[in-house]
TrEMBL record:
The active site is at residues 182, 189. It is an enzyme of class 1 (oxidoreductase). The keyword Disulfide bond does not apply. The lineage of its organism: Bacteria, Bacillati, Bacillota, Clostridia, Lachnospirales. One of its GO terms (biological process) is pentose-phosphate shunt. GO terms for molecular function: NADP binding; phosphogluconate dehydrogenase (decarboxylating) activity. Belongs to the 6-phosphogluconate dehydrogenase family. It comes from Faecalicatena contorta. This is 6-phosphogluconate dehydrogenase, decarboxylating. Catalyzes the oxidative decarboxylation of 6-phosphogluconate to ribulose 5-phosphate and CO(2), with concomitant reduction of NADP to NADPH. It catalyses: 6-phospho-D-gluconate + NADP(+) = D-ribulose 5-phosphate + CO2 + NADPH. Its EC number is 1.1.1.44.
Length: 465
């Protein structure tokens, strides 16, 4: 009997849709899930001649052609190690395991080393796009041995999203590089979502906008430079009615944010690598703070909800749009600075222009302005920060006044804008020639003899203050 081209383990949202996507592209796919029900459901619902289901790991592995290519789409963490442990006794040298979940990149580096020592290949492949992306074309970020990549490249590139005829799948680097980029993608996703939520809060609080008004505003914004998947779905969300209450559904959803940890990892790694990403980290903190609902309700009774905003004309909507765009530039600048530093630290030689191009299709942060980011890194691959590029400089300068007006209105009236305000603070620190760290260095030297450097001569100094 002929063997199948590729196998997928894990048939929840992502695995199931990836399996169907791969089968649609003419490949034969074997599927396996820890609990057999999901396999049965998939075969019953959407069985195609290219898809075969198995109920033991052994039969699943035996069904695959050599070298075997097995995609893991299981929960990140222990589930990946459990699955590898079960697979290993049935594999032969040269077989390839492709971890397509949101695994932590440092674990991917460890797993790669361990499996490669046993003669297997391990790929950490970031896949983004949620259910729809997995089914119709996700963004794909593969990390692993570049020569072995040639064996899985045809399948990955066939199923990936394409933008302007270009693939949203590009080899990233060895071992954990693909998962690192997916992690930072998610960190940027957190910041982008937080900024959009703040724009919503400002428009709702200052201009009293209702869900249908906001639907129109976001729909219009999606026609211009803010055009992106997240702005598009936000517009759709504001149009959705709740069947139970007949209110708009967004107004019926509890304001407590969930998270699975990739934003937290991005922030932790940035602290380790010494890169400032306050808008991304602020977005993580805001999700934490949101989950303390009871204390927030008590505090709002204690302190009130801020002061009533002064009347604003509808021009204010345009100012919020500009403030959102400027803040978004800063958030992406932070994410890309982190990738640049990781590239140096881990020796990955990341191609940031290609990475921006991958993000243009299939994934959650896909946005028109990624073309500008791709161009910026194409012109200058070692660009220290996106804010040094002329397109972004012009945008920030043109929108600077509106950005400051919106943030000051929010702060004066007590509207919570941690994303907008951290973005502006990041920009102001970034462009400040002399920060007050001279005083900080003096303080450190005063209490701890930590020494300081001088502006007028070389060397290290200590003073008896
Ligand atoms: N959902 C999304 O939008 C996206 C998810 N991802 C990532 O892709 C991966 C898959 O995501 P998703 O499809 O949402 O599924 P989940 O993250 O919800 O994981 C569920 C799957 O993992 C399996 N599983 C859980 N524990 C184990 C275990 N110990 N051993 C073997 N299998 C186990 C489940 O099997 P069982 O049915 O038996 O419980 C099921 O198939 C995750 O890493 C996720 O972070 C990436 C991009 C987007
Ligand atoms: O990887 C993804 C998209 O690219 C997931 O949708 C993401 O994990 C969602 O993250 P969280 O649950 O932390 O909001």
């Amino acid at each position: 009997m002929s063997k199948q081209n590729i196998g997928i383990i894990g048939l929840a949202v992502m695995g199931k849709n990836l399996a169907l996507n791969i089968a649609d592209h003419g490949y034969t796919v074997s599927v396996f899930n820890r609990s057999g029900e999901k396999t049965e459901e998939l075969l019953a619902e959407c069985g195609t001649k290219n898809l075969k289901g198995y109920f033991t790991i052994e039969e699943f592995v035996q069904s695959l052609e050599l070298p075997r290519k097995i995609i893991l789409m299981v929960k990140a963490g222990n589930a990946v190690d459990d699955t590898i442990r079960q697979l290993k006794p049935h594999l032969v040298q040269g077989d390839i395991i492709i971890d397509g979940g949101n695994s932590y990149f440092a674990q991917t580096i460890g797993r790669s080393k361990e499996l490669e020592a046993d003669g297997f290949y391990y790929f950490g492949v970031g896949i983004s796009g949620g259910e729809e992306g997995a089914r119709t074309g996700p963004a794909i970020m593969p990390g692993g041995d570049e020569k072995v990549y040639e064996l899985i490249k045809p399948i990955l590139t066939d199923i990936s999203a394409k933008v302007d005829g270009e693939l949203c799948c590009h080899y990233i680097g060895r071992d954990g590089a693909g998962h690192f980029i997916k992690m930072v993608h998610n960190g940027i996703e957190y910041a982008d979502m937080q900024l959009i939520c703040e724009a919503y809060l400002i428009l709702k609080s200052v201009l009293n906008m209702s869900a249908p008004d906001l639907h129109e505003v976001f729909k219009e914004w999606n026609q211009g430079e803010l055009n992106s998947y997240l702005i598009g779905i936000t517009s759709d969300i504001f149009a959705k009615k709740d069947i139970d209450s007949n209110n708009y559904l967004v107004d019926m959803i509890l304001d407590v944010a969930g998270q699975k940890g990739t934003g937290k990892w991005t922030s932790q790694v940035a602290l380790d690598l010494g890169v400032s990403i306050p808008t991304i980290t602020g977005a993580v903190f805001e999700r934490y703070l949101s989950s303390d609902k009871d204390i927030r309700v008590a505090a709002s009774q204690l302190y009130g909800n801020g002061v009533k905003p002064e009347q604003k004309s509808t021009d204010f909507v345009e100012s919020v749009r500009k403030a959102l765009y400027a803040s978004k530039i800063c958030a992406y600048a932070q994410g890309f600075s982190l990738m640049l530093e990781a590239s140096r630290h881990y020796g990955w030689t990341l191609d940031l222009s290609s990475i921006a191009k991958i993000f243009r299709g299939g994934c959650i942060i896909r946005a028109q302005f990624l073309n500008k980011i791709a161009e910026a890194y194409q012109d200058e691959p070692e660009l220290a920060n996106l804010l040094m590029n002329s397109y972004f400089k012009d945008a920030i300068e043109q929108y600077g006044q509106a950005w400051r007006d919106v943030v000051s209105t929010a702060i004066i009236t007590g509207i919570s804008v941690p994303g907008f305000s951290s973005a502006i603070a990041y920009f102001d620190s970034f462009r400040t020639q002399t920060l007050p760290m001279n005083l900080l260095q003096a303080q450190r030297d005063y209490f701890g003899s930590h020494t300081y450097q001088r502006i007028d001569k070389e060397g290290t100094y200590h003073t008896q203050w």
